[in-house]
Amino acid sequence: MAIDLIRLELGYGLLSLINQPQAGSHRLTDQIKGLRRQIAGEVGFVMPAVRIQDNLQLPPNAYIIRVKEIEAGRGDIRPNMLLVMDPRGEAMSLPGEQTVEPTFGLPAIWIEPGYREEALFKGYTVVDPSTVITTHLTELIKDNMPELLSFTETQKLLDELDKEHQKLIADVVPAQITVGGLQRVLQNLLAERVSVRDLATILEGVSEAASQTRSITQITEHVRTRLARQICDANINEMGVIPLVTLSPEWEQAFAESLVGDGDDRQLTMAPSRLQQFITSVRQTFERHAMMGETPVLLTSPLIRPFVRSIVERFRPATVVMSQNEIHPKARIKTLGQI
What we know:
This protein is an alpha/beta fold. The protein is built from 13 helices and 14 strands. The strands form 4 sheets. It has a 4-stranded mixed β-sheet with strand order 2-1-3-4, with helices on one face. Helix 7 packs across helix 9. The chain is globular and about 65 Å long.
């Protein structure tokens, strides 16, 4: 009856990736081990083990990634070839089989290993089949992090926090927040790809907020302000600045006026036509910046941030929404535009 949290099912043509990978490419199992280490370092929790299974119902070169037994993604790969993509997005001049890269849906080509040097020389990105699967797995795990952080995992994170923080834990859990409540705060952070590795700071934030409110949303928002340095650091571009798009005063007011209720019962009651206008203008603004090679952060006031984010994540899940309270005083910012 036990459920596999993460399962990778391979068609029989791909079993060679586990047993005898080609020269110069990595063994899939080793790459997945490396991935678990990498995610623990980046995100702060150890992802569950990945169960690898052969599935004879699949086409020979196909694979499926399941999260809690439900399909989260699938792809089709050529085990003895290499996948080539052009980071600039231009047409590629190499003999091979045209395809679509499974993780981000980019155009790509499967080439024979003999063309590797030529592809690298032309500035293309060249990836071996195992890496295609591992990359897909990484993104799906990051998308499903909140689901994978169970009650048991949360308890484990607390148990593993070093000795000097045990007093802090004793003060906060369960007197100010239950393990389940803390789990929901951490899930909220992970849902926006905020690392929970600095658990001590998160607990301090929870402790401060819990004396004022029982609302998990408001506690999460307060914790985010405590993690301002980390959130800013995660969103700086190669120039060392955070590119921002701000929300106009009209939209700020429209959102603030559409909030009804208190605490966790607070809801957004904006007319669907008005929401559609908002979605269209966010889309247009961000697509314009994307064409110029920028991926800006959307900046809002603290009160409405969670509500703006809940709308933006439906059509642009990768867009980061920050409130003014999360901009660290030492962070360098650059405003690119307004919605």
